[in-house]
Amino acid sequence: MRIFGLEMQKALLNAEIMVSVDIETTGFSPDKGAEIIEIGASMINTKTKKILKNFSELVKPRNGKIPNKIIELTHITNEMVRDKRFIEPVIEDLGHFMGDYPLVFHNAYFDWDRFLEPLFKKRGIYKNNDIIDTLTLTGVCLPDLKKKNLGYLCSYFGYKAENLHRALDDAKATGALCIKYKEILSSRNLNIKEAYPSRNKNTTSLPELRIKSINCWGKGGHRRIYILTSWGNLYYDLNKKNWYVANTSYDATINFKTVEAAFLKAVRINSINEIGKYFKNSIEGKNNKERAGGYVYTAL
Question: N or C end of the chain: which has fewer CB within 10 A?
Fold first, then answer.
């Protein structure tokens, strides 16, 4: 689950075990055909600063060869991935490795938001792990530092990274960086527990699902329908044909089948297959800001 601000700092301070993760890809955007070619993850005990176990696997891309510029950067060649597994079973194995521990990324927007979380959801896996981002924490712990890339930060702290731009080595470096930030935050004696109360991890129930408003948004080829609900701010991505959580304060797994049923009933369409027409009409102004403020859908 994406967390920010003091909640992220508190999650790091409270984490005894965390899993740092990194991926190597053929490009920047999965919407433009970019695929994962390597995943690395390292499970770390933050008290002993020891690695408990590692996860590392090369992945065979489905859509062709690895671009030359990526080969030059990562030294991962087409021959190296030729006999490897496709991403789907690797993602399932990674999910088991992650467990419920906090996940650490250096730029979670890229690794998690763009690639990993959508792949998990396509497999029907909804990970509720807290997401800690060392790129964000760099601004908190070292606000005057101008460079924030992983290589520079390793040099800054004197960490000798063996092979940057290889997933496992970058994951280990991210984990080491996160431990440094935990030490910095601990030294400030911040009473984050008082400043930001804990989310109740035992909470498994959600309130009655109420749709408050529905808004369509499109820009730069992206097409999304945002619905503000009593469960949080959710959205449907028309390009990816999938539901996502934009923001929620609940720990319970959100059942998107329930959300979809409520949405279809609220906008009076029979099937999610008709959502493209609904989106087009909304963007053109025919029902630009559909409101369903009084509509209540009882969750099963």
Answer: C
Q: How far is C-alpha 32 from the geometric centre of its chain's CA atoms? A: 19
> Judging by DSSP bridges, how do beta strands 103-105 and 17-25 pair with one another?
parallel
Per-residue pLDDT of 162-210, as tens digits, reads 788 999 999 999 999 999 999 999 988 655 544 444 444 434 467 888 8
d(CA 68, CA 266): 49
Angstrom distances, CA of residue 227 to CA of 41, 267, 299: 34, 11, 16
Contact 103, 71 (CB under 8 A): no
Q: What is the pLDDT of residue 103?
A: 97
pTM: 0.66
Find tokens 């467990």 and name the residue: 99
Cβ atoms within 10 Å of 115's Cβ, excluding its own: 20
Q: How many residues does the chain have?
A: 300
Task: Report the distance separating Cα 269 and Cα 278, nearest Å.
Answer: 8
Q: What is the b/e burial string over 55-90, where b = at least 16 CB atoms within 10 angstroms of the residue's CB?
A: bebbbbbeeeebeeebbeebebeeebbeeeeebeeb
Beta strands in the chain (DSSP E): 17-25, 36-45, 50-58, 103-105, 131-133, 209-219, 222-229, 232-237, 242-247, 296-297
Q: How far apart are CA 242 and CA 66, in angstroms?
A: 27
Q: Is the pLDDT of residue 92 over 60?
A: yes
